[in-house]
Amino acid sequence: MRSGSDNGGGVGCGGVSRGGVERGNDSCEGVGRESAGRVRAGREGASCGGVSCGNVEAAKRALRARLKNARAALSPDERAAADARIAAQLFELDAWRRADVVLSYLSFGSEVDTRAIIERAWAEGKAVALPRCVSGTRLMRWHRVTSLGALERSAFGVEEPPDDPATLVDPGTLAPTDTPATDDAGVAGTGAAAGAADAASTTAPAPASTRSPRALALVPGLAFDAQGFRIGYGGGFYDAFLAAFPGTSVGLCREASLLSSLRAQDALDAHDRPVDIVLTEEGETA
Predict the structure, then answer these.
(1) Which has the least CB within 10 A, 93, 127, 196, 207?
(2) Cβ(29)–Cβ(253) below 8 Å
(3) Helices (H), ranges, 132-233
(4) pLDDT digits (tens, 9 = 90+) for 183-227
C-alpha cells in the first residue's frame, strides 16, 4: 500500500497552542498549519487527481470538523477500552514482532494512546524513536529515547525528545519488517550504528550482519480509510515522512474513526500517502 497519497496528519509535535489548549493532537501538524496554508494557497486552481485542489481542501476541512466532534464525543472510558484493544492487536502483528525499531508518535489528548505501546517496546528490547519537528518546514527529526521522563516541552507546549545529535535516527537507513534478521546498524547510539544518521546510503546489498534494522512506524490521524489513507491536521508532516520511509507503517485508528474511502469523498490529493496497515480494535483493515 506504499503507492498513492495521504493527507497530512500528525505525530506528537504540535497539537497544542502556547497556552496548552488542545488544537489538534497531531504531532507537528498543528505547528505546520501556517506554512501548509501557504502551500495550499499556491495550489488553488490546480488539479488534485481530477478534482480541484480547492475542492479537496474544502472537503478535508469539513471532514476534520466532523471527525474532531465525533472523537470528542467518545468518553475517556470508551477511548481507553478501544486503545487497549488496538495495542493488543498491534502486539499480535508479525510486523511488530519482527521490528527492531519503533518510530512512534507520543499520544496527546484524545489520540490513540501510544505510551503503553512505547513501554512494551522497551520491555521487548526494541529501540524507540520519537519525532522532533523542524520549525518552518514539513520535516521531523527522529531521536532515540530510553525514557519519557527526559522529554522537553516545546514552545508549542508539546513534549518532544531533546535535540541531541547523538540520538538521531535516520529513517532512510531502516528496513521493512519483512527483511531478514538484522543487528543494530542504523540506530543512533547502538553498536555499529553511531553516526548512521549522517552516513551515506550505498546501492550494494549489505551482508546480513550489517543490514539495516527492521522498522515499524506508528502513525496517528483523525481518521483512516480502508485503503490506508488518512485525514490529519493539514501540516503535511506525515505525507513527507511516509513518502521516504522504507519501513512498515501502521495507522492506529478506532473503529469509530474508520472511513470507507476518502477518495470517494473527494478528500485526497496528489501529496497524500497511505500507510501499509490500518489497525483498529477489531484488527487489521488495510
Answers:
(1) 207
(2) no
(3) none
(4) 444 554 443 333 333 333 333 444 444 568 999 999 999 999 999
Phi and psi at residue 68, to the nearest 5°:
-60, -45
3-class DSSP assignment, residue 263: helix
In a domain, 13, yes or no: no
CB atoms near residue 270 (< 10 Å): 13
Q: What angle do CA 133, 152, 159 make, to 5 degrees?
A: 60
> Locate cell 512494551: which residue?
120
- Structurally, the chain folds into a number of domains equal to 1
Q: Which helix (H) or strand (E) holds 166?
A: none
**Can you give the CATH number for the domain in which 37 is found?**
3.40.50.10420
Residue 83: which domain range?
Answer: 33-199+206-284
Has residue 62 been placed in a domain?
yes
| 101, part of any domain | yes
| Residue in the block written with cell 550489517 | 210
- The SS3 of residue 197 is helix
For 75-98, the pLDDT digits (tens) are 999 999 999 999 999 999 999 999
- Alpha-carbon distance of 110 to 74, in angstroms, equals 9
Give residues with Cβ within 8 angstroms of 8, minimum separation 6: 29, 32, 36, 232, 233, 234, 235, 236, 237, 238, 239, 271, 272
Q: Which three cell numbers stand for residue 199?
A: 552516513
- The residue ranges of DSSP E strands in the chain, in sequence order, are 47-48, 51-52, 101-103, 127-133, 140-145, 152-153, 159-160, 168-169, 215-219, 223-225, 230-231, 248-252, 258-259, 277-280, 283-284
Give CA–CA dist 50/75, Å, rounded.
39
Domain presence at residue 147: yes
